Amino acid sequence: MAIEKRISLLEALERVCNVDVDAIDPKASTKMPFKPHNQTSNQVICCNTMLEPEYRDILLENVKKYGSQGWEEVFNRVSVQFCADNRKNITGRVLVQVSPSHVHDKQQVLDQCHAYDRAFRDHGITRDQYAIKIASTGPGLAAAKILNEEGIRTLGTSLFSLAQAIAASQAGCLFVSPYFNEVAAYEDDSLMHKGQDPALTHPMAPRLVHILETYAKMYQATGKDQPVIVIASNANVGEIIATAELGCQHITILAHHLEELQNTALDDTTLSRYPFLKNPPPKKQAPYYKDFKTSERLQGHMKIDPLVGPTWDGKFASTETNWLANDGEELSKAIEADPAVVKKLKDVFKAFGDADVKAKAAIEGEIARLNL
């Protein structure tokens, strides 16, 4: 019998779920032992990559072409060009993100998404090769419904609650990205989960199970495909493995975590640390929710919500509510009634908004230098 060569933790993960790359720098994708499925991005990733000295030519080229239309058009175009250049390095879709400054206004979301659509078209990237990330606000997902009907596929991002997830389904989103960790945790270590078994003890794990189980029930009731989960914001390798165990179909992974996964052999030491991989389930295939079932050891998550605490009444957001009517009025109310979501969204929008400010300053500096 042939002996299989020792594989890396990254290759083992790909056998369980679909690995996406959370980076637009092509070096992140091309270093991998296989092509990632999708490539995600956000304002922080796009701004930081744009300002790398090796990519200055891309910035200047787009400033010269589009600087007369303002800094945001330049930033849109730079982001799309990075994605277009990276398209050959993946098997699925490249994704860009709507600015946080627009996510509370449906028309502004539509305008930026149509600008992205024009830019992708100019690069020869068809609508089945890209998607646009839109924060899961009421107006944002109301816009996503229109875009999905137009054939511009979307991902509901900055998602922290079941109400947001159901609204994303009603909008026809292709993907959703729950954040496993809140953004503030990366600056404030006291907010970071410290447990050794994050699939069981992380405060976001129950909400993730609530979403997966609800999508499975919605699929069974309607036969309609539900958004594919692309879990984001894992703080470490242990959380990446945990979200695979929780049942996520895709995991988008930052470049430094991809490198760590690739450099870690799936040996006895690694298996003792991540026992889920000793006997993992088969990789999920579409339709993802047809036979979905939470593992027995994690089924207790359906009875708790640590983000609310012991006062949680056990009631789930309704799949019968029209969360998108009147520009997402009911979703906006649900978000405002959930302090955990309010705080997490505020922190997310600040992080991405700060990146927008940084990009604006850099681009406007080049516009002024070139007298455009």
UniProtKB/TrEMBL annotation:
<dbReference type="Pfam" id="PF00923">
    <property type="entry name" value="TAL_FSA"/>
</dbReference>
<dbReference type="InterPro" id="IPR013785">
    <property type="entry name" value="Aldolase_TIM"/>
</dbReference>
<keyword id="KW-0704">Schiff base</keyword>
<dbReference type="GO" id="GO:0004801">
    <property type="term" value="F:transaldolase activity"/>
</dbReference>
<dbReference type="GO" id="GO:0009052">
    <property type="term" value="P:pentose-phosphate shunt, non-oxidative branch"/>
</dbReference>
<dbReference type="InterPro" id="IPR001585">
    <property type="entry name" value="TAL/FSA"/>
</dbReference>
<protein>
    <submittedName>
        <fullName>Transaldolase</fullName>
    </submittedName>
</protein>
<dbReference type="GO" id="GO:0005975">
    <property type="term" value="P:carbohydrate metabolic process"/>
</dbReference>
